[in-house]
Amino acid sequence: MKTLLFPTDFSATSMHAIEYGYHLAKQIKADVILCNAFILPAEVPQSGLVGLPIDDYDKLVEENEVEIAKIKTHLECINDGEVFKPSITFFNEVGSVADVVSHIATEKKCDLVVSGTHQPGWGTILIGNHSKILIDCIHKPLLLVPLSAKIKIPRRIAFATDFKHPEDDLELACSIVPMAASLEAEIYITHVYNIKHVDQNIPDRMAQFVNYCANKTQYPFIYASIINNDQPISGFDKLCADGDVDLLVMVHRPHSLFSALFNGSCTQKMAAHINIPLLVLPSLK
């Protein structure tokens, strides 16, 4: 990974995610882009915000640039003994979060987007849940960092698989190995199953999965982890709550429009309440 993108709305949640991402960037020797997306309140009267005259556009841009420059200065002043210091640039653009982040991530060839998780509040109800929107729209690896996550280097990474899309999951599991190697982290291929309805082939499939990844990447620190629980989300919740892993990796596969609107994917549900960073990988198909 060469470039990480950090969207910010200047909240405590996004600042925490930026600091987490910056420490990660130093460890994997990647540069950083900060970005702020904003919509003129006059353009979204339904949000409950007070409308601004369009003449105040320049003033609003200037105020946002001052704030994002402060974040840049803050990051550059962090001194934790690491030799590598990421290059930091920033952009301040009008548009929705999804549009601005997608545009910058594509144009600047960003390898990873790092964002805070959604914090419920009246001001965001009609504008939308930014975590869910980013998961659906950016088509880039997305690292969601909750406010409760400790700022530390992840040494134990769990890659979740249900074995329903084995070829896709195999390639995506292999794709995180370079990052894991830079972090000197272990990878645990993790499957949640109900022991009462267990597929007798699961142990063999897990062994084949781990062996394939290890052989293809020549990375020796890939292991199997099978969790007994009748609900995937409950199983991963327990895994995260017990402190057994520092980072959970899930693949997002969009459902139908109806299902996505009323239920959301398992990945989106985890993003809503997870207490450790969640790395969301877009499906290859």
Automatic annotation (TrEMBL):
Cross-referenced Gene3D superfamilies: HUPs
Listed InterPro entries: Rossmann-like_a/b/a_fold (IPR014729), Universal_stress_UspA (IPR006015), UspA (IPR006016)
Pfam families: Usp (PF00582)
Protein name: UspA domain-containing protein
Domain UspA: residue ranges: 1-146
Record-stated family: Belongs to the universal stress protein A family.
Organism for this UniProt entry: Mucilaginibacter paludis DSM 18603
